[in-house]
């Protein structure tokens, strides 16, 4: 039987059947001699599904940010006392209520406990720059309540408040609920990159 009359070999791809010169075809058949196709019914050959995308959460955040950006942030207002509150002009009260309740996804976190003032200032600046570049919109900063400080007066808390109010990328901040640090931590809203 000639190569042309020989039936196609089992297991060879359709494209490879009969398209090779006779000597290459014979070499391929010799190399594949004894090879058999494996059939498994337990292996899923489909690629894994992509991870779920939190579209509603992203829509909510985008909506809040659009509300906030309706006016250009100008000079801010700050209240002092146990609770820290700061918002730039143009940030709506409804956004502040959501921020106070912790209704934004926290995309970054830093704990400044136990740091000296220069260390805290440097780490905070680096953290904020990194978060802004990554497009984070809401972060949590733990500054402490000053319970271990002389006279139990917070050292970092007023400094962090001052540093944040001086940064252009900070739209607002507010002390967290008791379950997330209370007056020893704050949620911070950052501008989006344009």
What report would you give on this structure?
The chain has helices at residues 22-31, 55-68, 93-101, 117-134, 156-165; strands spanning 76-79, 85-88, 108-111, 138-142, 170-175, 185-190. By secondary structure, the chain is an alpha+beta fold. The chain folds into two domains: 1-49, no CATH class; 55-190, 2-Layer Sandwich (Ribosomal Protein S8, Chain: A, domain 1), CATH 3.30.1370.110. The chain has a six-stranded mixed beta sheet with strand order 1-2-5-6-4-3, sandwiched between helices. Strand 1 (76-79) and strand 2 (85-88) form a beta hairpin. Helix 4 runs parallel beside helix 5. The longest helix has 18 residues, at 117-134.
Total beta strands = 6
Would you list the SSEs in sequence order as H and E? HHEEHEHEHEE
In CATH, the topology of the largest domain is named Ribosomal Protein S8, Chain: A, domain 1
CATH class designation of the largest domain = Alpha Beta
Q: Profile the largest sheet.
A: 6 strands, mixed
The number of distinct helices, counting runs of at least 4 residues, comes to 5
Give the N-to-C terminal Cα separation: 74 Å
Instruction: Give the CA-based shape.
Output: elongated
Kindly report the average pLDDT value.
80
Helix/strand class: alpha+beta
Which percent band covers the strand fraction? 5-15%
The number of domains: 2
**Strand arrangement across the biggest beta sheet:** 1-2-5-6-4-3
């Amino acid at each position: 039987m000639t190569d042309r009359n020989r039936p196609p070999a089992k297991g060879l791809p359709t494209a490879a059947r009969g398209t090779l010169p006779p000597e290459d075809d014979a070499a391929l058949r010799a190399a594949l001699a004894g090879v058999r196709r494996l059939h498994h019914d337990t292996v899923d050959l489909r690629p894994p599904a992509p991870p779920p995308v939190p579209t509603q959460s992203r829509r909510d955040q985008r909506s809040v940010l659009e509300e906030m950006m309706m006016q250009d942030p100008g000079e801010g207002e700050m209240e002092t006392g146990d609770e820290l509150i700061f918002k730039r002009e143009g940030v709506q009260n409804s956004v502040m209520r959501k921020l106070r309740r912790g209704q934004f996804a926290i995309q970054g976190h830093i704990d400044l406990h136990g740091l000296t003032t220069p260390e805290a200032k440097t780490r905070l600046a680096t953290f904020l720059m990194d978060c802004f570049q990554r497009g984070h919109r809401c972060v949590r900063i733990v500054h402490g309540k000053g319970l271990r400080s002389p006279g139990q007066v917070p050292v970092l808390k007023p400094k962090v408040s001052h540093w944040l109010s001086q940064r252009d990328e900070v739209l607002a901040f507010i002390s967290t609920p008791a379950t997330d640090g209370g007056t020893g931590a704050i949620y911070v809203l950052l501008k989006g990159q344009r």
